[in-house]
Amino acid sequence: MSWMKDLSGPGEKSKPYKDESTEKVADPNIPNRMVSNKKANRPFLAYKEYRDSQEALHVAWLKKKEAHDAAVARGEKVKPLEPDPTAVQEVGLLGLLKFIVIVVFMFALAGKFLTGSYTWESNSKWLQAKTYIPKGGGQRLFSQEGLATFNGEDGRPIYLAIDGDVYDVSKGKAYQPGGSYHHFAGVDAARAFGTGCFATHKTHDLRGLTDAEYAGVQHWKQFYANHKDYVKIGKVLHPPLDYDSPIPQHCNPPKPKSPSKDAQKDSKTDHKEL
Fold first, then answer.
1. 35: closest CA among 48, 19, 46, 49?
2. For residues 158 and 168, what is the distance between their CA atoms, to the nearest angstrom?
3. In a domain, 6, yes or no
């Protein structure tokens, strides 16, 4: 390029640009000036033609409006005046909603094409239909005996309960007969969710849990409440607990540690102080 020669140092000076094209038209912006009709200039020339056509349409509409207003002033019956064809159309609420729907639709299609999921494999509760279903509608109250019948056998759905809340987990393969979590089907095994004693703690009795075990129960409650495939369908009614009955024993109780000498000394000191 000529300007690169100038930057490289003294040498042959570049010749000034001269338009040698023969086909020229009037410059739409500068009076008494002709410009080339080459491809690079055609968008600007076409825009000038568009502005001229819009101006002509607006002038014609003004004449129609003038005639319309005059007829109305004379008391004549006239048809409604057509809107100005050159007026800028503002985007209304309906147009905005259409735009949002189109964007969401295209976003979902892109997710299906790229990840195989319309929601881009997201499990967010805001993308789950059950989030927008009013709670309480269609909720059932189960007895312990009635809940036990929903164990997946004979084609029945699979329900489980945790701390009184009943969920339909029929979509989970692990809860099917023979699955690794089938022991949860038809029962409220809230205690087992915290202790891990699946064979002996299939009960809703949460007495005596440690803080960590109780936190584990709360974690699993949130897990089922927010799961995309499991739906809460009701609650199970338990008989009152007998608080005089023994607390269920842990399947793997911690071994008691022998107190250290310092602990024994402190214990004696405390005992004397009491």
1. 19
2. 6
3. no
Distance from first CA to last CA of the chain, Å, rounded? 99
pLDDT bin (cut points 50, 70, 90) of residue 272 is very low
Q: Are residues 174 and 189 in the same domain?
A: yes
Element (H, E) at 142: strand 140-143
Task: Print the domain residue range for 198.
Answer: 133-237
Question: Could you report the per-residue pLDDT of 49-77, keeping only the tens digit for each?
Answer: 888 888 899 999 999 999 999 988 988 88
> Which residues have a Cβ under 8 Å from the Cβ of 99 and sit 6 or more positions away?
91
CB atoms within 10 A of CB 148: 14
180, with CB counted inside 10 A (0-12, 13-18, 19+), is: exposed
The arithmetic mean of pLDDT across residues 93-119, rounded, is: 88
| pLDDT tens-digit map of 179-223 | 999 999 999 999 999 999 999 999 999 999 999 999 999 999 999
Question: For residue 122, what are the CA distances in angstroms to 80, 117, 130, 225?
Answer: 52, 8, 15, 16
Do 147 and 203 belong to one domain? yes
| Residue 129 three-state SS | helix
* CA 39 – CA 45 distance, rounded (Å): 10
C-alpha closest to that of 223 among 145, 151, 167:
167
Residue 7 structure tokens: 């930057």
Write out the two tokens for 156. 């029945």
Positive/negative CA dihedral, 118, 131, 181, 139: negative
Can you give the CATH number for the domain in which 185 is found? 3.10.120.10
Dist. CA 270–CA 32, nearest whole Å: 109
